[in-house]
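Sat 14:20. Reprocessing the chain from the morning session after the first attempt stalled halfway. Input below, unchanged.
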Amino acid sequence: MSPFDADDSHCINLALATRSQLVVSRDKHLLNLMDQTHEEARDFVKRFPGLWIIEPQILLQMLRTKS
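Finished this time. Tokens:
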């Protein structure tokens, strides 16, 4: 099974079209795009360095740290 899912491309396309900097998701395939152990993920991060995909609990930690 591939660590990536083509069915998730609409989420990434929307984020890129709106120039979003952050996608918050629990979807393992989307999160795998940030996993630098995968060649595809390294390519994704290189192509779209301004877009982060993180889990909700990471966002909560970031918000608590800013407070």
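The chain has a mean pLDDT of 92.
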